[in-house]
Structure formats: structure tokens, C-alpha cells
Amino acid sequence: MPRRPAALLTVLALALTGCGAHVTGGGKDRPAAGHRPVTVENCGVRTTYDTVPRRVVTNDVGITEIMFALGLENRMAGYAMPDDRGDLDAVPWKAAYGKVPWLSKKALTKEMVLDARADLVFAGWNYGFGEDNGLTPAALRKLGIGSYVLTESCHHGRDNGARGVLPPLEALYTDLTALGKIFHVEDRAAALVKKYRGQVAEAAAQAPAPGRRPSVFLYDDGRDKPLTAGRYAGPHDIIGKAGGVNVMADLKDSWTTVGWETVVARDPDVIVINDYGDTSAARKKAFLMSYPPLAGVSAVKHHRIYVMDYAELVESPRNPAAVGALARYLRGLKAAG
């Protein structure tokens, strides 16, 4: 109760100072004087940003590092991120992490956004944004706060819970390009996209021929049912460009669960572990190696289990380098075989 007056003042301030993002077609919003409005398509919705955002709040590591890669840390009011996202001192954006406030070790909430006096929230569906927590672009718009949705997380449709509408690496390039326009750093964004495409092409050029590529299963976590990556999650493109075949490529979703019987039936040559969360990669590997239903799976029989960092596997600037690292591992298997 004592916070309610302050929150009301914050809402009013945001309504006056927000970035002016609005869905086009309403006819009521007008761009602020002296600013060139920018319109981009984000998850199928054309959205106009009347001013350059100055107090951006992000959710989680990949989204935060997209902003850092674009050199936009001075446009940020903070980020929310669990503390299990690896060694942030070893990344190219160490200095940026030192400048931008770490708002919370939990997912974003509307209260955090208001307290940070954000004028734009950059998050994803089920990845910061969600109907259950009341943090949606529509709800933020009513408060005068803009939003940008991570393309990897786009819903197929309003009533469809499945996520993903583009190949994962194209989603990364799409977001870099769109954010480059919104923040007027188009040249910087174009240079990053060119660099990342070059890194991926270099790794892909050394991949085995299609008929000789190892099959790969991405294991995120889960005992009763494993969480894995369909064709719209980052690992699908990372595996494919590195010279492997995602055994769950037919799943028209990003991150989703399957049954262990499906994993056994598809008999992957390699299992990639997503290293994050309360369960360590070592414990995940121990589980896979000791779980009786998997005993006959090729990856388990031949101890072909490879660990990758969470931030390499969700949409982030780390994806292109991750392609190269996995490609080297897969080539090593080929040479050993």
C-alpha cells in the first residue's frame, strides 16, 4: 500500500517520457517533434518507435548481450538475469556488464520495469514477457512503455503456444538489423551481421557431406521428459551449420519437451548438454550415462556427449562462435572414426 502513490507517479512520468513505441494503424499516436520515427516489423507486428529509447531493460543473458554487441549499454537502465549464466568476466562485454545495473536474479516483472523507469523492454515470450505475469507489450503500451520481442520467441499465432517463425540465426540477424534501425546504429548492426555470417559460413564450409553428418540431440534438462530444441531454437541452426543433424528438426517449435522413447527411437550419434540451471552439466551427463532407457543409444554407448554454455544456445551474439566450436568437435569425431 505505501508504494502505490510512488508507482502512480512513475506511470505518469513514463507516459510522458517513454520512447513512444506504438503499433501502427491506430491513428491516435503522433511522433514527438524533432525525432525521426522508425517502423519495424517485430513478430509480425509493425511497430513505430517515435524516439530513440534511453532506458532499456532486458531479460536474460542473450538479449542483454545483443544490446551490448550493438554498443548500446549507455541506453540501458538494467537487466534481469539468474546468476547461473556462466563467467561473465570472460566475455567480450565485461565492461558493459560493469556499467549496467543488474536489477534482479529472477525474470523481469512489471514492478521492476516501473522501478527502473524503463522506456523500452526487450524480452521474449515465456522469456520475460508472459500473459501469466501481466508483462506483455500491450500492458506496457498502456503505461507509455515501448517493447521489442526477441524473434526466436515469436508465437506462431495468437492462440498457438508454439514459438519461432524464422530459422534461429536469421532471427538473430533480424533482431540486430531491427534494433540497429530503432537506435540509429544501422552501420554497426550491418557490420555485426556481416561478421557473424562470415563466422558461420567458415564453419559450415568445413562440415561433412550431408550423407555423413552425425545426428545430434540437444538435452536441456528434465528427467521424466527432456526439454529440447525444435527447428526454431538456436541449437537447431548451430547443430546444422556445424555439420550435424538435429534429431528433433521436425518439431515446429523452439524450446519444447519430448518423450524419452522418441530420443531412443531416433538414436542420436551425439548429445549436446545445455549447461545452466541448478543441475550442473556433470550431473546431467551422469544422468544420461546411467539412465537405463538410453543405454542402447549411440551417443551414450560411445560417450559422445558435448557440453555447451546456455548463452551459446539461446539467441545471442555468442551463436556464431558456438557454431565453430561445435563444428570442431564434430570434425574430431569424424577423424577419430
UniProtKB/TrEMBL annotation:
It comes from the Bacteria. Keywords: Signal. The keyword Signal applies. Residues 55-337 form the Fe/B12 periplasmic-binding domain. Residues 1-23 form the signal peptide. The keyword Chaperone does not apply. Pfam families: Peripla_BP_2. PROSITE patterns: FE_B12_PBP, PROKAR_LIPOPROTEIN. CDD domains: TroA_a. Belongs to the bacterial solute-binding protein 8 family. This is Iron transporter. It comes from Streptomyces lydicus.
